[in-house]
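The pair is quoted verbatim below.
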Amino acid sequence: MSETNKNYAIITDQVDQDLRIACAKIKEEGYTNIELHNVFGKSIEECSEEETNEIKAIVEEYGLNVVNLATTVFFLCPLYDHYRVSLFNPMFHAFKGNVEEHLEKLRNACRIANALDCETIRIFPFRFPDNEEVTVVGTDKDMERIIENFKKAAVIAEENDVTLVVENCPYSHCPKGEMTYKLIKAVNSAHMKLLWDPANSYRAEAHRVPEVYKSLDLFQEYELIKGKVRHLHVKNYAYDETLEKPFAHTALFDGDIDYPSLLKTMADTYPYYCSLEPEVDEEGTMKSMRELKDFYNKL
């Protein structure tokens, strides 16, 4: 890891929804790497060529490096025709459409990534539906259908020389890293790796997760999947069963997940970017940014 370009980053909309304001604040905090999701009131994969040029100009003005496009490809995309999916948070911009429309947005994301010299693009293992009760996610039938669609996405990635990174997401059919690992092993493409979010694994809804995926703690999960992890998201939770939503967001080093130990464990085997997605208020975000930077500077 270079002394002048540490491998920590932050998603810009976590700092400010206005890209220019976010980039100014991020630069001021001593960060050089950013990840893009919400841009100009839409998800990054929806941006036009003109908007891409504007993004590029702003990023270059502040001397920042785009390390990942956090697209919403396959998030609000029904895995089956009778499924209905919707957003859990109106502030989380996401593209909605069928598989072919999402693949077309992926092609656009590849164009944007190449224009911004960005090597990776985040995709999702399909959101579970809200028009029927899903008692178990990641069934064999679901996995087979996801793999079929991921293979189409991998072809697009290969054609455009980018790497897709699949995020384990608690709102999807694969909330744990062990599950997304199984997916990409089946796809078997050099252009598809993992975006591991330890906090998403931690807060996966246990009653939906098959028993076979419940045995590993975060350190054990990383040991299993480490050869396939190409991008990392970090945030934290404090579990409180008295709350209606028992997993409460905290600043990065204040929650239940022991990130100093986990990141130290990963230091020798994970050479890529650690991207902050704090999902807390402004004070907590700034605290998380500074503590993550200090952690890597001392590592």
